[in-house]
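Final report, closing paragraph on structural work. Over the funding period we assembled a curated collection of sequence-structure pairs, and we close with a single example.
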Amino acid sequence: MLSGDRLPPLGGDNPRARYAIAKSTLAVVVAPPSKLTLQPIPPSADWRFDLAEGCPAHCQYCYLAGSLTGPPITRAYANLDDILGNLDWYVGRGGVTSKTLARGDEGTTFEASCYTDPLGIEAVTGSLSAAITYFGEREWAAPVQLRATTKFDDVGPLLDLPHHGRTRIRMSINAAAVSGRFEGGTASVAQRIAALGRLARAGYPVGLTIAPIMPVAEWRSEYGTLIADVSVELADIPGLDLTVELITRRFTARSKDVLHDWYPATQLEMSEDLRRLKRGKFGAIKYVYPAPVMAELRRWFQSALATQFPAAKVLYFT
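Its predicted structure, as stored:
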């Protein structure tokens, strides 16, 4: 138990050592009041709410590297009743899904995996199960959907929950050349795909988050094999409800520096010379693939997915 409301220094005499200690530390804390003011999270969902911050995986391209400050301790939030009980006001007020023609059938969407992988810590917290049950059993003023993405496969505790189709769990998957080299501490892609099939057979709406897409050597063959493997797993599942989200690899100057501190020997490509600048809504600069590369990736994935999953809905490519 802590003596105050701040986490103490964890030690370590260099960034890599501090990272290793932080990554093996989970703190159970109270989410601050600011967490109860939800923010939109386009293009994924109407609103983002957090069950935790931080992740036990060791992905060398980690998106959190440029988003969270300080050592990457996983902080699980204890005041779950406050977090879930705060969602009612936001129902019907979103601008990403609930008020759009393209995705209005999803209802008001709440993303729970923006700053964490909730399944990766579920054995300790139980928070994802609690959220799924809450969304499934509550009487809502309008249609809603809980969304979560994971790179883990321990879905057994979720299969018999009363989800009532109001939770969409997506598996984050990638080509073997990417996953095998850059996604430490996660379930294998084959295990994730098998877990996706288990969820779909339990009646969950499911999804693929293919991310971060990288035009590695033989990328068409690599991603073609990936999509074919998913097709085999999901074949002949009655009432399959499948979506796909396509996210290419991008980085910021800050995330590049942090990742090099965490993984000094990484072979991850982070060359500004091979990228183009993209300015965000609030002036943030990201380095993304050149327009011709993005166009080719989009065309290929749209064609491959249409062939293997003609009934699936591709939500976005970014």
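The first strand starts at residue 26 and ends at 29. Residues 15 and 261 are 6 Å apart (CA to CA). We thank the funder for supporting this effort.
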